[in-house]
Amino acid sequence: MRAAPSPFPQPIFVTRPTLPAKERFIAQLDEIWESRILSNQGPKHDQLEALIGRTLKHPQVKLFCNGTLALTLTLQAMGIKGEVLTTPFTFPATPHAIQLAGARPVFCDIDARTLCIDPAKIEAMIGPDTEAILGVHVYGIPCDVEAIELIAKKHGLKVIYDAAHAFMTEVGGRPISSFGDATMFSFHATKLFHTVEGGCVAYRDSALGPTLSLLRNFGILNEDTVLLAGTNAKLNELQCAMGIEMLGILDEERRARARLKELYSEALSELPGLECLLPPAEVSDSLQYMAVRVNEADFGMSRDDLYAALKDWNIFSRRYFHPLCSDFEFYRNLRRSDLSEARRAATEVLCLPLYGELPVDAAERIVHILAHLHRSATASPLRASN
Ligand SMILES: *Cc1c(COP(=O)(O)O)cnc(C)c1O
Hints:
Blueprint: E1 12-13, H1 22-35, H2 43-55, E2 61-64, H3 67-77, E3 83-86, H4 93-100, E4 104-107, H5 119-125, E5 130-136, H6 145-155, E6 158-162, E7 170-171, E8 174-175, E9 182-186, E10 199-203, H7 208-215, E11 220-222, E12 225-226, H8 237-248, H9 250-268, E13 274-276, E14 283-284, E15 290-294, H10 296-299, H11 303-311, E16 315-316, H12 340-348, E17 349-352, H13 360-378
The structure holds pyridoxal-5'-phosphate (PLP).
Pyridoxal-5'-phosphate (PLP) binds near residues 94, 165 and 199.
């Protein structure tokens, strides 16, 4: 019998923002103090935009002050005002962006394997007002991009992706943003790459570029002309400086996360009732989350009980995504398909702590605690032992 592990002395959260060396950021600030350019597409902005284009292997990108507005303004720039088929198994920002753009979300169920919108459920939901499909690459596991493309072509729909979890994801060597008409990335502090707050959109049709630039800057074309009722969604120079420095430590952060994810997935494969949600072999992992699916019968505990129990050990996991967006009171009367797979995922998925600075022995301890909870939950004499 192995000794019971002990709780962490300090809380361990699901993530901890990555930061570059403070001296490097201060050197960037010195340049900003010198230039007195703080916002409005300054030199740091243009430098970061070019660097992001190279990192994502997608030359056409626009930076925004956050991912939500990047997505909202992309839908506006495309003129999408009708129904947008999307997934309820996502962060609230996804359907909110549709709503904010003046269009209407319609919820489609997810594929049990990818946890992304299920192409097999899409076609039946297409109506006379349907204009677009908005898929989310959940945990960096890509949607079935080929099937979605076929459906979109057949019905003349636009395809937009929320790739907030899929920074640098590639499918068979192709960058994730090469699928669909436009792809949004979030640069929020909790994301793998961040600018404190921020985001971008990678788009296919070059005609979209000038409209996106106008929409993020009040629709101002020049001193004499305002072309559109745009908003203020600019990324400022301090945030761009953060992004430039973050890109410099991205490889190191990714290496550390890859090591931890390998440790988790190897150790957890021996534990009944916990299935690691990993991208398929041809997909490069974005390393954004360490998501597991809890099978109550095999693990001995429900996801919610495990989530609560982990807190006693000072481990703060997250139930991404719970609750389902389709359950929000104000979205109750939107059109929807049967959502049973999404509902099941929302009660079974848990994200474990994953960030570069998480020590290897802390991840090992988390695994031991999970094994201990499984043993305690299944050791009851009331359970059949065989
Ligand atoms: C983080 C996130 C967003 C929102 O991005 P912000 O930059 O915080 O606005 C949207 N969708 C998903 C799936 C996310 O995880």
